[in-house]
Description:
By secondary structure, the protein is of the alpha/beta class. It has one domain: 3-Layer(aba) Sandwich (Arginase, Chain A). It has helices at 25-31, 34-40, 69-82, 99-109, 140-144, 174-183, 190-196, 199-211, 243-256, 276-288, and strands at residues 5-11, 44-50, 88-93, 114-119, 164-169, 186-189, 215-221, 259-265. Strands 2-1-3-8-7-4-5-6 form an 8-stranded parallel beta sheet, sandwiched between helices. The longest helix is centred in the first third of the chain and has 14 residues, at 69-82. It is globular and about 50 Å long. It starts with a strand and ends in a 13-residue tail after the last helix. 50% of the residues are buried. The model is unreliable at 296-301 (pLDDT under 50).
Amino acid sequence: xxxxxxxxxxxxxxxxxxxxxxxxxxxxxxxxxxxxxxxxxxxxxxxxxxxxxxxxxxxxxxxxxxxxxxxxxxxxxxxxxxxxxxxxxxxxxxxxxxxxxxxxxxxxxxxxxxxxxxxxxxxxxxxxxxxxxxxxxxxxxxxxxxxxxxxxxxxxxxxxxxxxxxxxxxxxxxxxxxxxxxxxxxxxxxxxxxxxxxxxxxxxxxxxxxxxxxxxxxxxxxxxxxxxxxxxxxxxxxxxxxxxxxxxxxxxxxxxxxxxxxxxxxxxxxxxxxxxxxxxxxxxxxxxxxxxxxxxxxxxx
Length: 301
């Protein structure tokens, strides 16, 4: 196996939603052995520790529901600046608003067309103007594709909506649905997965990335998974990916050789059961990096 240089970036972001606890996510991944797993697979690993945003004054927004706007802008700047210019960054979160900065940073340094695979129960395509909850963890893909309403945020290299694939969606607000259709984003919801399986749409998207000579960023949200196997998330939605489906996705991604960066988001250790969600996320990352979860002797009966 070819050795990869991984940079682990702690992103203890806890301002993009109301449920507290995601700030403990980076240390939960460390405790679950993310670095040791990568090293055991033969890779080089540097953990740069946790990023810290600048101190900022509160900012008001015309939408009264918006909260922690200034803090989210500061996190976006800090995580973008912390993105390495080479190697394979893994952003350990932290709520999904961290992707405002992680993907912005990856896009700045991308040497090939950038594609994004969004593994999530939600499309996160709200803007600060359309969100009714005011939770900015629901806005990254709108920001990164240049939708209106992000004047408070730093400018970002724009992501082509055609270069996005959302897999696992099963909770989409009407405003998001309209915006996704207008932008022509590829959304593979759980109904489509139930009918056609998860491998076929994933392989079709990877073929698109390969044909463009692109590089792929994967953003893996805990709520992509079925809550029964991954309870440590504040936004559980029933009917998520099963253990086997999730590992299959990761193994197919590994086989493609296209993945160049990764977000691990929305892990809330306060809601976990004996660390099992953190361990599952580490195991899924292991499959993405080449470990075959089913490469083991079968039991003889």
